[in-house]
Records
---
Amino acid sequence: MPPAAHLRPAQTRPRARRDSALDAQKRSFLRMASHELRTPLNSILGFSEILTAELYGPLGAPQYKEYAEIIRGSGQKLLNLVNQVLEIARLEANAMDFDLRPEPLEPALDDVLASLEADLSGLKVEITGRGELPAVVADSRGLRTVLFHLLQNAAAFSPEGGTVFVRAQRLGRGVEIVIRDEGQGVDPAALPRLMGPFEQGENALTRRGEGAGLGLTIADLTCKAMGGRLTLASKPGKGLTAGVRLPIG
């Protein structure tokens, strides 16, 4: 018998109230952290952009403009990291509101590919079944978040001139979306660790881009929140394959 099975309704109500209070505290903290962290970063970005553009006249020595550009770039990286950490916190606290409905996969994929144009520069993207991709039951933003992080991860570890492969197929009552790169891959024993935050694999020095290693964690938690799951498969020298299973639309 489960430990709480013998408890009467009157005994479970205080626990429910405590859980509700904790959820409220988590949401309040996330709102506060979001505001207190983003507000100064937005100011840093805004003023550094003004300095870089020299809107109020020349800065003088050329180094000043160079330093302003460095400040802006560093601020943007920090803001991206803050946004990702807060997103993980919201997902873990079940503070994300997802609207699950049939979502066409093709336009979601097109949106993500357009936003990753710079990351995918020098790479080919091969999509199997273009024009006939199935729909899935998912949150519109959540689906794009998952695709964004998996494609960005594939791009980061792909060799120059390599190909990122994308396909989707119906499997029973669901759809499997597979994204595979031609990178160096990792030892299968390291795959569970890659799902954790700030993990980049053993070949992090071969990455084409930068990042804190939070993308796979966000993709995994978002998949679970939408009733799906994310799996990884890899072998050294064989690239990394990410498989997303979502209900069929």
---
Amino acid sequence: MRENGAEQPALSAAELFDGMGLDYEKAFGHLPEQLAAVEWLTARLARGSRVLDVGSGTGRPAADLLARAGHEVTGIDVSATMVELARQQVPGARFEQCDVRDFTPPEGGYDAVCAFFPLLMMSRAEASAALLRMASWLAPGGYLVSATVPADVEDVEIVWMGRRARVSSFSAADYVRLLREDCGLEILYEAVSVFRPAEASAGPEEHLFCYARRGA
């Protein structure tokens, strides 16, 4: 991407999603595997459970569905624009502009943590540490429901939805191993699928969804 003949630097996560706003929801807000993951989770949570949505975006679909199911939902996101949209669209949940690397959970942690694609613009070391932190926030028997784009890449520059960004990720096997061995979670479900957004600027993506549980 160039502006006035000069190539523009890759965007930070906050800059990327501040500029995207509702365009992200239009492209990815109806992802079937994400909807199925939230449905799976709500079927296992007692009403009034405390749930953290990491990288909550516009609040839809995850925080919205969880709040409608009667849970106490907190969403965090690095993007001020996304947090403002989420507050407008999902008044039944609480949203905070915060990076998962800086977040302090309440005493007692959470009955569940959702983490749908929030780690891709971190280094592998940062993403691994974030997964460990999220797993530590789970109450005994709590669930971590997460998704990522599986790829064996480190600090690679891409153009995504017309915007430049730098991304890192893990292969599907390495991601599952991190959850099982490093985080000490029981893997209940894992599957790779391909999603094709209706948005012309977003191409097909492989997605890995994992449902995991902390021991009681």
